[in-house]
Amino acid sequence: MIRRGRAEGWLKRPIDGLPVWARFHGVTFHNIKVGPMPGLEHRGSTVIAERDLSDGNEDPLMVVPKDLIISRTNIELLAKSDRHLAQVLEALGDFGRTTRGSVLIFLLMQATISCPEIKDVGLINPLTEYIKFLPHELLPTFWSEDEQDLLTGTTLKPAIRAKFNSLLREFETVRTDTEAIDWCKKYWWDEEDGHLTFEDWMELDAIYRSRALEFPGVGDCMVPCVDMANHASRDATAALYETDDNGNGLLLLRDSKNIAKDGEVTITYGDDKGACEYIFSYGFLEDGMETARTMFVDLDIPDDDPLKPAKIFITTVAPGFRLFEQDDHVRWESDFIWLVVINEEDGLDFRIRQTIDGQREIQAFWKEQELNDTSNLRKSLQEDPLWDVYQLRAVVLLQNRVADQKDVLREMADPERGPNIRDGPWNLAARLRTLELDMLHKAGNDLEDQKTTLLQSETIQKYLGGREEEEEDQVDFT
Prior knowledge:
By secondary structure, this protein is α+β, with helices and mostly antiparallel strands. The protein is built from 16 helices and 16 strands. The chain has 2 domains: 15-259, set domain protein methyltransferase, domain 1 (Alpha-Beta Complex); 290-342 and 375-472, set domain protein methyltransferase, domain 2 (Alpha-Beta Complex), CATH 3.90.1420. Strand 8 (239-243) and strand 9 (249-253) form a beta hairpin. Helix 3 crosses helix 4. The termini are far apart. It comes from Massariosphaeria phaeospora.
């Protein structure tokens, strides 16, 4: 492959060469440097204050020329002069025109250019060298099977499985769409001499996923040197990133922030992200993180639902629900659950329609109104007289799903540690299990309170009374 094995890397460069690269390409540091924190070298490189920094007295801590920002717009500009990059992006069609697709292909091209066994492909640019300073990211997609088994019962386990499937589809798309290009066939896909493997695509994904920032005025992108800053949330965040009037990337000290010499200059990767997403995208949890913050729990339609196949076919939303903290309670939200809790007697109907080209497709209706987008179903149910009934069904279903998830996590409370399980995955998995179990316990209590409140609803009392009368009428007294 391009890297000759993940442990070895693709011609990685030591971080102490970064200042020379930055100076040569117009990146300016103002009283900061990039490197390992003294005594914390195991954490990798970060942004460090070279002297005391105080709010109101500082120029931008870092200025990155706009041409160095790895964004979809800049990649499209580079493709105008790099015919090999342009070839691949064009061959990939819609995927090559997305931000994710264009950035991953750009990173792949830089790795290809850096491979000593590949000649006359691509144009060397400043970012070709910068990529070599980026460290390997130990994200869960690179955990061993034994290490991933430690995540059983957490929301991270299905997320990793879904990511693997997504990466496989992307990799096969890249292969299918580019193997007709002569140099791609020769250097990437040849059975004997090809260099590109699925593990390499995983590596590119890890680089992008762990370093992409939503930069004001640019969107999702990678900003060299700024992406070396580590994360700290809320009040602990030391610096902000934004663009100036010319589109250059800036790193700015936050208002009312003071950083002592040799202190760390941190940014936020997103204060509202949950524990699962931090490990999934960045491979760490903040020190002192006491709550999972948010969880997405998968949800299935019961097998005894006769409409299950049709519901699965027409759904346009993710099959699950999100738990999140708000005002010292655990709340929930889901577009999918409303499709699960209604049935034919409520007013849900499916019909077969023949299209103009002779094909047949399923149409969904809610009380004679066509249901084109199931994400809008909740709004229709809210306007229904039985809205409280639908809410009660949803809450009871969620209670059962939360209880099941808790049971699996409890079974994993004290797993056996194998000899090949590394400290990082072992500790992260244990913390995640604890945080998510605690959140599920709180969710169960809050759902019970919601159920109790709903049961007092006049609508539900009347509905339940009517159901009891129907059942009595159906009793055979003979």
